[in-house]
């Protein structure tokens, strides 16, 4: 943990006690499906992009809080491979928002030793957006703090197909060189995933009351604990994260075994 609990949670709401958090049992990897920006905006008579912009504050606070608590990996689902189906003005607005936000935030993240990386088919993003993520990676890649994983143009099924394709490329290369291909196993497949060097999420949080995984980290969340909250993403803050962590710490994780 990088800061005392009273500094991370200075004004807890009634019914939320930060001292109940076991700082030695904070999940190593937290993944978040950020949902509800559109509904949040609609409730206020605004367009969906207004909600996405409002959600940036929740992203910022979640990153800082997770880093301060000692979370080692935070993966945020920013844009799925299916989100291209949304109205063009929303997609263009999101891509510009990703670029401007990343460029505005990278110096602060760097100062806090956060490493920024992306997973997904980033090559399909507009150049401005690709360049912003590339700059963030280049600036922060040697940092030793929390790793922020931005899933953008990401789809879990596509990741599995890409992993199998990568494995087959290696197998064909081995045959051409007269070697026996490596036998396919879980361990071998994992090395071909976008998340090859990242541990599986311990905790998956989904906001806005939805109860589905939306093609997110399908392989990696096999034994993740799920916490779903009714809170819409722009209203998510450090105390909502604390609630999720406390619920996580109350779970009995057996990984298919019996205790």
Mass-distribution shape: globular
Helix content: 40-55%
> Mind telling me the C-alpha Rg?
19 Å
Number of helices: 8
* Strand order in space, largest sheet: 3-4-2-1-5-6
Contiguous uncertain segments of 5+ residues:
none
Summed over residues and divided by their number, the pLDDT gives a mean of 96
In total, the number of strands is 6
The topology string of helices and strands comes to: HEHHEHEHEHHEEH
What proportion strand?
A: 5-15%
Structural class comes to: alpha/beta
Distance between the termini: 29 Å
The major pleated sheet works out as:
6 strands, parallel
Question: What can you tell me about this protein's structure?
Answer:
The protein is of the alpha/beta class. The protein has helices at 5-8, 37-43, 48-69, 88-111, 127-140, 156-176, 186-190, 238-249, and strands at residues 29-33, 73-80, 115-119, 147-154, 203-206, 225-228. It has a six-stranded parallel sheet with strand order 3-4-2-1-5-6, with helices on both faces. α5 links the parallel β3 (115-119) and β4. The mean pLDDT is 96.
Which characteristics define this entry?
alpha/beta; 259 residues
Secondary structure layout plus pairing:
Layout: H1 5-8, E1 29-33, H2 37-43, H3 48-69, E2 73-80, H4 88-111, E3 115-119, H5 127-140, E4 147-154, H6 156-176, H7 186-190, E5 203-206, E6 225-228, H8 238-249
Helix pairs in contact: 2-3, 3-4, 4-5
